[in-house]
Amino acid sequence: MASQKGNSSLKIEAGEKWNQYLFLQIGFALTFIFIFVPLLGLVYFVIIFIAEIVVAIRTMMFMSKCSYDLN
User: Fold this and answer.
1) What is the structure's pLDDT at 34?
2) Per the UniProt record, which residue ranges are transmembrane (predicted)?
3) pLDDT-based confidence at 5, cuts 50/70/90?
């Protein structure tokens, strides 16, 4: 949709957001490996949890920006 409107910066940023989400999901999947090491697993889980919140907030801000720029 951004390419149709001629806004290539939004298209690039959307690709970056997708990559962030993908890497976060891979990181979350690795939590099951680290869960067997008690202290490391807990620290890893907390870091992934905080990263999930940050990525969700940044994605919502991006969606708001898209709705403003594309309408």
Assistant:
1) 81
2) 43-63
3) low
